[in-house]
Amino acid sequence: MFKKILIANRGEIALRVIRTCREMGIQTVAVYSTADRESLHVRFADEAVCIGPPASRQSYLNIPNIISAAEITNADAIHPGYGFLSENAEFSRICADYGIKFIGATAEQINFMGDKATAKATMRAAGVPVIPGSEGLLDSVEQGKELAKEIGYPVIVKATAGGGGRGMRIIKDESEFQKAWDDAKMESGAAFGNDGLYLEKFVEEPRHIEIQVVGDQYGKVCHLSERDCSIQRRHQKLVEETPSPIVTPELRERMGQAAIKGASAINYEGAGTIEFLVDKYGEFYFMEMNTRIQVEHPITEEVTNFDLIKEQIKVAAGEPISGQNYTPKRYAMECRINAEDPANGFRPSPGKITQLHFPGGHGVRIDSHVYAGYTIPPNYDSMIAKIIVSGQSREEVMTRMKRALQECVIEGIKTTIPFHIRLMDDPGFKSGIFTTKYLESFDFGGL
Ligand code: MV4
Q: How many whole angstroms from 156 Cα to the centroid of ligand 1?
């Protein structure tokens, strides 16, 4: 087992990793930017190293500084959390070169899954259902139009280097094709330095459902069922829940087996997520694979009793997994509390938290790094807390979540709490029948 892990991240996920390390008897090293001197991850870690100024590029994305911090503290592994360097192939490779275990995917796996057309081809070859479309990249706009005519409009062109909704365009008919193509090419070239595009049938009003997998170094992969992440706004998830209200035991079994096939095909080791779109007919299709721990991992922990960070660390250290798939018996939901104003287009609201009280009680878990008197820096992600609630039914979880949200006091900044309270009372949300477009027509007025 590792003796010392450096956490190459900040905020709640840095704390989350430190907590599990402490329980496992593993020493921890925090790294921090000058904006995060007063952060809890710095105080809770056994050691802390300043790695640069506030800008992410110069601190949390600064590979030489992070490797130096690991070298001088003698860390034998690095946990990258989510975001930042968690899916950076170069960083994974450099850690390996320095003999530091990267608790995440190999450089090869990250490159494979980071190129979406390649990822899709790999999954298709492994027998995972994929959305009908081009085989690999499109060579020309003419080829794209030809294919679109065959499979039928609407179609979508996507940047192979994209993901999370960037560099894609929906095309309703052939007259829109040229402009959508030019725009997507331009945008992806500028954003990713790679303007390769592929084409798919556009799936209308889907649900976003992802399967959590864990693999070990001996080729065994298990799945821990799904998370429904359909409640999101502009590709930012706001609420996640498990089990999904629309996933039947039969669908779960098929999606779970597909996820295992996909992860096994790339010898996946560690915690990963296979994202699927589920259409209105209940058909599911591979969308992307995330080779990191995700923000919403706690809802899976609450229903399975696994500590997913501990699983990541154990498999990275070479321990085998039991290989049991999971069938849900409980319910869990997460609300992301962001320092944003939901009444004004979710505009960021950094600043000082003057008063703070987090909810507690039966079935309530808070993952957060903030405290009364903490100043939220403007440089990073606006998420300040996750309220995670579990219970015996979806109804119980929604009631408990509303109670927890009402108990929560955060003064000095605006937060997404008023939105979440309204959502817990919303008939459409309560029905369990909604799509990824749900928030497009949600009334955010007067929050
Ligand atoms: C799609 C799609 C419909 N049809 N692909 C959005 C993020 C990126 N991972 C892919 N995305 C989509 N791909 C086809 N062929 C609709 C989306 C999409 C979406 C997916 C999941 C959750 C929210 C979404 C919001 C808008 C579009």
A: 9
Residue 347 burial class via C-beta count within 10 angstroms: exposed 0-12, middle 13-18, buried 19 and up: exposed
Nearest by Cα to 128 from 317, 276, 328: 276
| Residues of the chain scoring pLDDT < 70 | none
Q: Which two tokens stand for residue 283?
A: 């058909």
Structure tokens at 438: 């749900």
Query: Which of 204, 287, 296, 437 should be mutated for ligand 1, with most atoms under 8 A from CB?
Result: 287
Reading phi first (left if > 0) and then psi (alpha if -120 to 50, else beta), residue 38 is in alpha
* Pair of tokens at residue 334: 């997460």
Residues pairing with 6 in the sheet: 29, 78
The answer to whether 200 and 116 are in contact (CB under 8 A) is no
- Ligand 1 neighbour 134 (Cβ under 6 A): no
pLDDT in the model for residue 441: 96
Report how far ligand 1's centroid is from the alpha carbon of 176 (Å).
Answer: 19
Cα distance between residue 24 and residue 175, in whole Å: 60
- Choose the final residue of a domain: 201, 235, 256: 201
Three-state DSSP class for residue 176 = helix
Do 175 and 234 reside in the same domain of the chain? no
Instruction: Verify whether ligand 1 is closer than 6 Å to residue 436 (CB atom).
Output: yes
pLDDT of residue 323: 82
Residue 114 within a domain: no
**234 has catalytic annotation:** no
3-state secondary structure of 141: helix
Domain containing 318 equals 207-441
185 and 235 housed in the same domain:
no
Catalytic residue among 10, 292, 365, 400: 292
